[in-house]
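Standup notes, structure subgroup. Blocker cleared on the adenosine-5'-diphosphate input:
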Amino acid sequence: MTVRSSFVVVANRLPVDEITTSEGRQWRPSPGGLVTALHPVLAQYRGTWVGWSGGVGEAPEPFDLEGIRLHPVPLSADELERYYEGQSNATIWPLYHDAVETPVFKRRWREAYRTVNARFAEAAAEVAAEGATVWVQDYQLQLVPAMLRELRPDLRIGFFLHIPFPPIELFMQMPLRAEVLRGLLGADLVGFQQRLAAQNFVRLARHLLGLRYEGQTIIVDGRRVKAGAFPISIDVAEMERMAADPQVQARAKQIRAELGDPKTVVLGVDRLDYTKGIERRLKAFRELLADGKLSVPDAVMVQVATPSRERVEHYQALRVKVEREVGRINGEFGRVGVPAVHYLHQSYSRSELAALYCAADVMMVTPLRDGMNLVAKEYVASRADTGGALVLSEFAGAATELRQAFLCNPHDPDGVKDALLRAVHVDKVEARRRMRIMQRHLRAHDVGQWARSFLNELGVPEAT
Ligand code: ADP
Ligand code: F6P
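Run returned:
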């Protein structure tokens, strides 16, 4: 029997991925910022999460996990290739990230995007109770709001885009542009990470569809669709608790010892994605070693690169480039038993990540473009000891809030090197001052506050 909920989240991925091992089917946490942010929100609202389970073929039956009802949506192998790897991650993802890689446009991908979006809309329509709130997430599902409104006009529909929304000139390249825009306008409230993105959207509605707007509200067939900025965040209290855990602290010490107790541990943690600027960061580290401004073993770098979208060409090419650069740095500057860069192409538990954050003197977050970047916020929240320093790209959404980071332009190699050196050599008092201000900001702007502000604007009563 289908369980109907008054609060439904629809996202491409469920918070867990299905994996098949020798012991049969198992579930493990799925990657990415969306899941990190939404998991605590849904646990509080006790709703249903509609999403893909990460496998192909028939979907598993709906099940409950930590108070959340999970409703899997199936994808065939062909849809995985065309909807997920193609239209979502080779067309829309690069286009919305300033085209830092060239977007690929294919007709057959667009058809699959429509079909799969319709399937998600139908699944949401099935599990939503009369008058429910449905909150649709991210670029993979931009057609869902309008499709869902068509099926269920009684629902209150919100949409949140986790990634940047491009300027008009870039958006206009997309063959599916009018359909995507109409899809989003099916929502009552469309949320973005940044004010500028919301402005791009409102202007686009006039430019492309000739729609009238008043402030941030677009008038569509007599309906009012609001647009706004709602910068996403993390569960700050949970991160602080985890980082303060004596086991995590002991593990952090052990990590430093395993690295040879260097003076400076520089850390990067990202999905292996070309938007994250991993190559440029490595290059900056290499040039500082070559210039003699840093040296091994006093300084070592740890780069965690979580496997991501591994069958998409752009990602395969990136992996080759990153691994070549790591090899080059270690070849030139490493010694027997002392590599300059420790490269880890693996997933970790949240507590291991917290230990890595606590072990790092300098955290480098240098995306060429990023909607927000939760790793930057996790690092700051984990350093309640007020140690550590954050180097942060101006092109990450997080830079609007974390102004006391060592900000840099990732397109300027000298700027990145300079920010890294300043972070390495900052005096302790100044580093603490910066960390404290950022931590105060995060405590007042955690993921609970993000969800409340979006849902209040949508007119949803607070969860008790
Ligand atoms: P994106 O959403 O583009 O992946 P974010 O920085 O916003 O980028 O979010 C990434 C999330 O994934 C963070 O919560 C981070 O802790 C988590 N994460 C990153 N790398 C790993 C890893 N190797 N193992 C487990 N979690 C990871
Ligand atoms: O917001 C960024 C995002 O694309 C999420 O939608 C997604 O869950 C996460 O990154 C990880 O990507 P993927 O689901 O393609 O592995």
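Discussed briefly. The chain has 16 helices and 18 strands.
Next: hand off to the docking folks.
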